[in-house]
C-alpha cells in the first residue's frame, strides 16, 4: 500500500493562535492530556509556554515535586494556551 503525502498531516489548528500551524512531533506528556495538547496546540505555542513556565518556576522558586506548585503551573498553562489572564514574571513581555 502506497502512502499519499499529506502536507496537512503535520499541522494542527492551534487554540492559542487560532490558525493552522506545525504540530508537536510527540505528546508533551504520556497521558490523555499530552495527546490533547499535541492535537490542539502548535509547536510554536508550546515552545513559548515552556519558556514562560521556566520563568515562573524560577521567579517563584517553585518545586515541581510540590503538588500546589504543579497545580499552579497546570492552571497557568491552560490560561496561557487559551489566551487567558495568566501570571507574568516581572519584566515579561510576550513575543509579538
From TrEMBL:
Task: State whether keyword Nucleotide-binding applies.
Answer: no
What GO molecular functions are on record for this protein?
A: iron ion binding
Tell me which SUPFAM superfamilies the record gives.
YggX-like
Identify one Gene Ontology CC term for this UniProt entry. cytosol
Q: Which keywords belong to this entry?
A: Iron
Give the GO biological process terms: cellular response to oxidative stress
What InterPro entries does this protein map onto?
A: Fe_traffick_prot_YggX (IPR007457), Fe_traffick_prot_YggX_sf (IPR036766)
HAMAP family cross-referenced by the UniProt entry: Fe_traffic_YggX
Sum up the protein's function in the record's words: Could be a mediator in iron transactions between iron acquisition and iron-requiring processes, such as synthesis and/or repair of Fe-S clusters in biosynthetic enzymes.
Family to which this protein belongs = Belongs to the Fe(2+)-trafficking protein family.
Name under which the protein is recorded: Probable Fe(2+)-trafficking protein
The record lists the organism as: Moraxella caviae
Amino acid at each position: 500500500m502506497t502512502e499519499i503525502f499529506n502536507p496537512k498531516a503535520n499541522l494542527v489548528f492551534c487554540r492559542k493562535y487560532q490558525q493552522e500551524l506545525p504540530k508537536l512531533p510527540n505528546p508533551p506528556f504520556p497521558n490523555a492530556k499530552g495527546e490533547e495538547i499535541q492535537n490542539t496546540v502548535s509547536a510554536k505555542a508550546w515552545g513559548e509556554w515552556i519558556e514562560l513556565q521556566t520563568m515562573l518556576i524560577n521567579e517563584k522558586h517553585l518545586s515541581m515535586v510540590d503538588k500546589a506548585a504543579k497545580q499552579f503551573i497546570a492552571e497557568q498553562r491552560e490560561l496561557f494556551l487559551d489566551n487567558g489572564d495568566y501570571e507574568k514574571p516581572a519584566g515579561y513581555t510576550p513575543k509579538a
